[in-house]
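User: For documentation purposes, I need each entry recorded in a consistent format: the amino acid sequence on its own, followed directly by the corresponding structure tokens. There are two entries in this batch. Please keep commentary to a minimum and don't merge the entries.

Assistant: Recorded as requested. Entry 1:
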Amino acid sequence: MTRHREPEPIRPNLWADRLPSYAFLVEAAIGRNPMRYVMARWFDQEDPKRARTVLFVLKPDVLFGTYVRIAEDVVAGEVSAHTFLPTMAKPMRVADVMLFDCLPLTDVGYVDLMAWPHPLRDNENDDGTGRTYRFGGHDDLPSIVVTEQVDAGHAMVTARRVHRDGICTRTWEITEHGAAADGNLPLGIRVARPQTGHVTDFRRATAPLPVPGEVFDLEAQPMREWLVARLA
């Protein structure tokens, strides 16, 4: 595989213009079960190619306390993700190949939360309006191909399809763009599993909240409490 060290010529995924760190509430439903999340992101002001992303699950109650933390460094070609469920003794590192799957018991894809594409990938196509890259396909790893559609006007990825061993397993698309006042942060996102026909619509429920960088240094529980107190 090729380790890429150059930033992509488009905005990071789920970018909120002019905000170095921010958070917002997201709502969805799986069947009759309401889902509620807090997503927060921090960009390093000394090195904007480094980012940290945190997602907390607030609802359903059975998943309360679940979270995922993702750290990315484009220049170093590194990404690490750790997830925690209430049934775990401690957070677990997510294997690279599993980053193309979902947080357990949700339709939240790890790759959809990341600011940039996975650094360990082989680019197959990038023409300015879309890009395709491959991960795996050797040893015991499945062949994973990701195809993304780029909106030149918004300078962002607006749709993504994940193929595993030639079968489309997940799709992701922006259904409604956010206003300039909200930093163009997407307002509506739809994910689907073509094999089962399952569809989930995510809706941003708040404007992006500026968050001091030091909040991202807190442990999970106090960080969640700080964010919820200001967003909920």
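Entry 2:
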Amino acid sequence: MTLFIEHQQLKIRRFVDEDKNDFISLVQHPLCMKYSMTGVLSEPQASKFFDTLMHNKKHKMYAIEEAETGLVIGCTGLQDCFIEEDLCIVFTLRLLPEFNQHQDLHPALKQLIEQLSSLHQLPKLQAVVAKKNQFIMQLLADLSFEKIKIVTCRGIDSYLYQTC
């Protein structure tokens, strides 16, 4: 099954080679990566990360594209994350801050969460969010995630969220 979502002005789709420059700009944006476990990536790190994403057979990250311009404004999907000592699969989202309030973000992500759960046969999705990341915490609440507990992920105090 190929995952593709289009909701009015946003598309969520597989990355293609032509997205590399947009992806590098995304993961080098200080506000976009402010609460990321890795922080802002250098150009070589970002390039290597993109190549890894393109060839990852286990989990997929997807491009969030503004349909009108074709600009990749974010990435989302599933990734492995160590929560305390356990390896877990978590939902992740990186978005250019000027698109945080995009009118189509919630409906597109809602569809994505449903498709990811079905595609990967996950009864519930989890997400780990740094305690200071108010935007993502509110977004997850709006997307029917609930805060489960306080966790440490890569040394950062965070919350574990789970779909209801």
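Summary note for entry 2:
The longest strand covers residues 72-83.
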